[in-house]
Design brief:
Distance between the termini of chain B: 29 Å
Helix content of chain A: 25-40%
Largest sheet of chain A: 7 strands, mixed
Oligomer: heterodimer
Radius of gyration of chain A: 19 Å
Strand content of chain A: 15-25%
Number of domains of chain A: 2
Strand content of chain B: 5-15%
CATH topology of the largest domain in chain A: Rossmann fold
Structural class of chain B: alpha/beta
CATH class of the largest domain in chain A: Alpha Beta
CATH architecture of the largest domain in chain A: 3-Layer(aba) Sandwich
Strand order of the largest sheet of chain B: 2-1-3-4-8-7
Order of helices and strands of chain A: EHEHEHEHHHEHEHEEEEHEEHEHEHH
Helix content of chain B: 40-55%
Amino acid sequence: MREITYRQALNEALAEELERDPNVFLMGEEVAEYQGAYKVSHGLLERFGPRRIIDTPISENGFAGLGVGAAMVGLRPIIEFMTFSFSLVAFDQVVNNAPNMYTMSGGQFNIPITFRGPNGPAHQLGATHSHATENFYASVPGLKVCTPATPRDAKGLLKTAVRDNNPVLVLEAELLYSSKGMVEPPDEELLIPLGKAEVKREGSDVSIICYSQTVPLALNIAAELEENDISAEIVDLRSIKPLDEKAIFDSVTKTHRVVIVEQDHPFCGVGAEVCYRIQKNIFDALDAPIIRVSQEDVPMPYNERLEKAVLPNADKLIAAVKQVCYA
Amino acid sequence: MQPVEQRDEVEMLSLMLLIRRFEERASQQYQAQKIGGFCHLYIGQEAVVTGAVAAVRDDDYIITAYRDHAHALARGTSPDACMAELFGKETGCSRGLGGSMHFFDKQHHMYGGHAIVAAHIPLAVGLAFAIKYRGEDRVTLCFFGDGAINQGAFHEALNLAALYRLPIVFICENNLFAMGTSVQRSTSLRQIVDRAEGYDIPGEIVDGMNFREVRDKVAEIVDSTRKEPHPAFLEVRTYRYRGHSMSDPASYRTKQELEKYRLDDPITRLRAQLTREGKLTNEQFDLLDKRAKETVLAAVKFAEKSPQPPLDTLYDYTYANGSVAAGRSPTKSDKSAAERAATTEQGR
């Protein structure tokens, strides 16, 4: 194991998959000559050439659709959105074409495509550039959605996504790109299955269910909770769809108390789905009502103080944990 | 089908008759409520797809919008499978899961059947991208209507195709109406072909009621595209005799206009050409027409007696290689879907 950044981990995943399969190509805005808006594709143009690392004009609908078409005849495109906020311009391709094709064609055309890029709020980007899209996309049958929080998960999930025979969205996070973590050495194949959560910290009093940017948030408050004699188990979903129900139920059956901390909005959000499944399947395991910590239900303000007030934060999460623990 | 230069015109006339009789029968079956949803007929436009398909190889790619029955038939999808799809049956070309607007036939390189106006044009560019990526000499024929040219997807796709020099022929089937809105009321250009100029794509206008003109023009373009990949654009002027869909009486146009085009009918025209040249007798034509009608009637019978898709396959076609559907454990049908996917080209 060695320590690398989330950005480097993604870069390694791309390079390894491009190396492994000549059908894989990377396409998006500024991925080639500019080396990636967030430098995730750094060095790939030099290594793999312009045939496989392809800059596009600012035409998300066009190049997302190009990827879906290429996937119909067996190529395995990796389509980078500079941010998933821009994927909304390509919503028709991601929602109507990619996941429907397999059904509409009676199983003749599966679409092995990866859509990837940063998702969710970053820092003072305002309403149009701060969308957390995981709940939009996870609600679409035919799509798979993963949300890596660590460099190791980023590498392993992206590689798995590229090999999947279905459209998979890898939702990265701008604020995580420079974060560091331990990852297997490059000569060791790292594949993390979709639909497998991971307990990032064991605990006994409360399950904090999180993903993406809310994972470091939860891990950061665990010590403070410990000082209050609350032992928190941190369950990182890693994939939103498929959802690892078993990992959730195993943890909740142990702790009997749940806080879900999500980066999207509360209405029809990921937390609502997780909450529904817990109460439906293991109602008797609960000792307290489940609480969600989400974004406030408003478009993202630019103002820094207001933005902080919109986002899940340590204070809100600690308060929620104390509430479910009756502490 | 045979290589382009040998493709028999009588055979292509026979194909046009098959398309016409198929659509007439589909209309009747729709009225009898054997066919659900939306149903858009191609009657009047037969020379466009027939001419274009006559000019390409069987391994070239074709893709179109929702008025797609003729494109599948022209590519060689069996009338049985087409009619069964309209009936929503398991034996349909999309297993009854696609319907009238979503015909697919992988074996015949027919990539759909797409019902969001212009959303398939980027897909077509992706097919052409894959051709160039692999260094093949195929071409992609992308059909769409005059209504598609005002969608963003159309513009983004044309720009990408021109930028990357992809082997694709954009074939605008200009039947003068986007649903009930005439081209004059929808498009800020005197002629549609001028759209291509904005993307530095060579464009031409073709008489879509004339099989030979369509075939020869597409052949010429495809020949040059195979040698050196590039996009091209054809505005093919045609006319649909029926309304936009089965529910449209087409009251936005005059009887005189319709009659004018009926007199210029593409089938009548090719028939007259062939008769004049001594290649077809009236008896032969009648025989071709009789065969087309019989084939279509047999297709209706086939569709009627075909089974419905089994309920327990409901989750089989959501994900390739198994299902992750909400709150549901794997069943036998997951396995069969996975097995089927494993045998597909992309399932490897």
